[in-house]
Amino acid sequence: MTTILDDILKEKAKEVQKLKDSGAVEPASDTTVHSLYDSFMNSDLLSVIGEVKRASPSKGDIDNQVNPVEQAKAYVEAGAKAISVLTDTPFFKGTMDDLAQIRKAVDVPILCKDFIIDPIQIRRAKAHGADVILLIASALPKNELVSLYNEARRNHLEVLFEVHNEDELTIALDMDVDIIGINNRNLKTFDVSLDVTETLAEKIRAEETLVISESGIKSKGDAKRVTRAGAKGILVGETLMKSDNIKETLEELVVPLGSDQG
Ligand SMILES: O=P(O)(O)OC[C@@H](O)[C@@H](O)c1c[nH]c2ccccc12
């Protein structure tokens, strides 16, 4: 059975080929580093990554009219500690230009949210102002994940290493990655459950590993639940994209860490 992830990766391979054929050389980029790891590890509150997401394969159009720069600025003003920008075009209707524009407008770490399968995409992300890239464990075999991870680090990028099950988590732990994203959404079936964070976070023992719970987070209750499970950060797209009051919605999610209080 082919899944949506297979379809996305197939399109991505074509995009990468075009990029290579174009012979475009990425301009040298600003070397300022905004460390998501340092920022989130040094906070007493749950850190929110606000995601700019026009559409998705599971939800269709979320907000196709959004002004990505205004949206990102509103997130930061409301207290988001980082911004995620979907840059995939065919499935999420984002662009690399969104990333570059947002980079000029905000001063927090920016995650380039894409399906990275080749080093050329890493250099492109860096050139457009990303501080962090996403690597999705279910997208590639381990040896390729390792080489892309190393390529990102050589480019002074942090990596959000995304896992969804125990096998993928084992790979993350073997690779000794600093930032593990636990995706509550199964990218093959679109099922979403915060149980995934609870089950997997428990198996991450190292204090110095930053755990981020991704997808399906809607309420203060959800934020508290993943915090209790060990997450220090959350990645929130749809709830913020659909909110009529970003400040109120986001502030609700910024719960204290390491406590069952409140
Ligand atoms: O809109 P949500 O349910 O809050 O989810 C945000 C983010 O976690 C989700 O967009 C995401 C997580 N991992 C991904 C990988 C590819 C594309 C998208 C994603």
Automatic annotation (TrEMBL):
The keyword Amino-acid biosynthesis applies. Belongs to the TrpC family. CDD domains: IGPS. It comes from the Bacteria. PROSITE patterns: IGPS. It comes from Salinibacillus aidingensis. It catalyses: 1-(2-carboxyphenylamino)-1-deoxy-D-ribulose 5-phosphate + H(+) = (1S,2R)-1-C-(indol-3-yl)glycerol 3-phosphate + CO2 + H2O. The keyword Phosphoprotein does not apply. Pathway: Amino-acid biosynthesis; L-tryptophan biosynthesis; L-tryptophan from chorismate: step 4/5. Residues 5-253 form the Indole-3-glycerol phosphate synthase domain. PANTHER family: INDOLE-3-GLYCEROL-PHOSPHATE SYNTHASE, TRYPTOPHAN BIOSYNTHESIS PROTEIN. This is Indole-3-glycerol phosphate synthase. Keywords: Amino-acid biosynthesis, Aromatic amino acid biosynthesis, Decarboxylase, Lyase, Tryptophan biosynthesis.
